[in-house]
Amino acid sequence: MAMRLTNVRPWGGAAADVVMAEDQIVDVVPAGSAASDGETTIDGGGRLALPGLLNVHAHVDKSWWGRPWVPAGGAPGTAGRIAHERAERDALGIPSVESTTAVLREFVRHGTTGVRTHVDVDLGVGLRGIEVVRAAAAALGDAVQVDVVAFPQDGVMRRPGVLDLLDQAAAAGATHVGGIDPASIDRDPVRQLDGLFDIAERHGVGIDLHLHDGGELGAFQLELIAERTVRAGLHGRVTISHGFAIGELPPGRQTGLLDVLAEAGIGWATAAPVRSAPLPWREMRERGMPIGLGTDGIRDLWSPFGDGDLLRIALGFARLHALRTDPDLVDVVRLATSHAGGYLGRAAHDLSPGARADVVLLDAENVPDALVRCPPRALVVAGGRLVQRAGDVLV
User: Fold this and answer.
1) Gap between the Cα atoms of 84 and 88, Å rounded
2) CB 213 within 8 A of CB 184
3) Which of 60, 133, 220, 351 shows the greatest Cβ crowding within 10 Å of its Cβ?
4) DSSP string, 211-252
5) Cβ-based neighbours of 368, under 8 Å, separated by 6 or more
């Protein structure tokens, strides 16, 4: 199927037509160029066009989106929230195909066309959460590319049998295995990391590891991860999610550790939470370290917040880092779009020939205007299909 999206302004530039065939962009030509026979044309109305938003850190299996309101509860802190979630999730029917589908539909509504989601794998749920997420993605006709991280939220070494479940998940097609705070949760960072890297090497998958531990404890674990990444030859295939420690270190210590992490090819994923230490994102960018943005949990037993709009996360990143100039604001939007393609295995993700046909239209003057206002997405094309128009999700 051939489609032509007419009269749009890619990245706020001159009016153009975006020509798509099957699931790829095949050309971007001046607006008003003659259409080929058989093309379906859709008038973009002169709107700003961006590539699809890519959410590189989500938990779509955990949400109670679409269900009656659930009051927040449980003790504060990571351990308290884990315990609360384990005590309450079964009564809420989490994970469920219905709620996961509802979350993915919200992603589509807000222009997200790809997501890397951490899916709980533990002794209580086994691999069922992965099956739920795959069923939800299929229910939307794969309008959103969904890559799965098998995630041991409740720990690895302290829960005998979880490492085997992660191994099974990797063998069954998870793109990454995850970990969580090897020191403060498992209290055995060497064994947790050795186990995760062994699975990654044997199955050819990546690693995406939650690291909440701050300061020198977090820095110590980052060093262990970098060492193992180099040893395993996993350059470019290891992501640190959160990694608050890197923003908390004194300048000299931070610089040295960034050099080590960059040499190992380690990337970062952040939801830019309020009151967290800003990332040294310019220094990371100078070293070629990938940085991606994610929504984290959305209306789940950890937090009642979140609406699935990754552009709002990008705005939070800009505000956390006190960014104001137009070039910086454009760069932040690129973190949420074109610069994030590698997290989902895309060699290119932009409004350019050869890229997947993911296009988002917004009523905005330019990219900075779109970021600071986060207007509703007027139209979303994913994989060459019209999946949202005027706020109505069509899948």
Assistant:
1) 6
2) yes
3) 60
4) E---HHHHHHHHHHHHHHHHHHT-TT-EEEEE-GGGGTS-HH
5) 326, 329, 330
d(CA 166, CA 339) in angstroms, rounded, equals 29
Residue 3 makes CB contacts below 8 A (sequence gap 6+) with 19, 20, 21, 39, 40, 41, 42, 357, 381, 384, 386
Dump the DSSP string for 92-157.
TT-S-HHHHHHHHHHHHHTTEEEEEEEEE-BTTTBTHHHHHHHHHHHHTTT-SEEEEEEE-TT-ST
- Look at residues 35, 7, 40, 6 and name the one whose alpha carbon lies nearest to residue 22: 40
Structure tokens at 149: 């991280």
Question: The pTM is what?
Answer: 0.97
Residue type, 99: S
Residue type at position 12: G
